[in-house]
Specification:
four-stranded antiparallel sheet, alpha+beta, Glutaredoxin
Length: about 250
């Protein structure tokens, strides 16, 4: 009887170890972005549906994290943006202050947190994008990784760097889409407007001063990204994201 109990105990122990091993390896590595493109758009802006398509084009390029941040800047014109959030407006406002832009506008592109311009002119947008992509990240950019775990948890790891740093760590949940909204008021009345890589939430995880650190979070639906960025609308130093499928 004792031998039977020992055998059952060993079987349970082996199953537990196997489950732990599978859980530890049940993760999908994310992608480190080489360029981050942010579009500040509004459903009440006549030029924004076209700008949304441009963001969709950027999002299809390799190692590019392209994100849509809807803002309600034109809600007073007869249509309230269905995806706008106050924190997105705060982020755009920080960029405007840091880059000395007079007021906020749409459609606005911000690339790598370093350059901003109107998304109305696709040629200009492509030129600035190519310039920033060629420049790359700063030489002291941190090693940043993101992995999807089971149950939509995500693990973020950030390597140590020598020197003194002052940066924020941001986690972003986004929906690849495209998500289409039929507008029934305002300047885009009777138009169907598509959104690509639509940001749902943005959360500041912590400050980063150059130390090695890691985080796990439960919210990563449908996809998520992490940015290391200088404070108050400053340069992005590193970015990584999850992405199961390209549309």
């Amino acid at each position: 009887m004792l031998s039977g109990m020992i055998a059952r105990f060993l079987a349970v122990l082996l199953l537990s170890l196997a489950a732990t091993t599978l859980s530890a390896h049940a993760q999908t590595a994310g992608t480190r972005a080489q360029t981050v493109v942010e579009l500040y758009t509004s459903q009440g802006c006549s030029q924004c549906p076209r700008a949304n398509r441009l963001l969709g084009m950027f999002s299809r390029e390799e190692d590019v994290l392209a994100l849509t941040f809807p803002v309600g800047i034109w809600d007073y014109l007869g249509w309230h943006d269905t995806f706008a959030r106050p924190e997105f407006a705060d982020r755009q406002r920080a960029y405007s202050t840091n880059m000395r832009v007079r007021g906020r506008f749409t459609p606005q592109l911000v690339i790598n947190g370093a350059r901003q311009l109107s998304a109305s002119n696709w040629d200009d947008a492509r030129a600035v994008f190519d310039e920033q992509q060629a420049a790359g990240w700063p030489t002291n950019a941190p090693a940043l990784n993101i992995s999807r775990l089971r149950n939509n948890r995500v693990r973020i790891t950030l390597g140590a760097q020598s020197g003194t740093y002052n940066a924020d760590i941001w986690m972003i949940a986004y929906d690849p889409g495209p998500l289409t909204v039929v507008i029934t008021g305002g300047v885009n009345n009777n138009r169907s407007v598509a959104h690509y890589n639509l940001v749902r939430t943005i959360e500041r995880l912590d400050a980063w001063t150059g130390r090695s650190t890691w985080y796990e979070r439960a919210r990563c639906q449908p996809e998520c990204a992490v940015l290391v960025q200088e404070p108050n609308g400053g340069r992005i130093l590193a970015a990584a994201y999850t992405y199961r499928d390209r549309y």
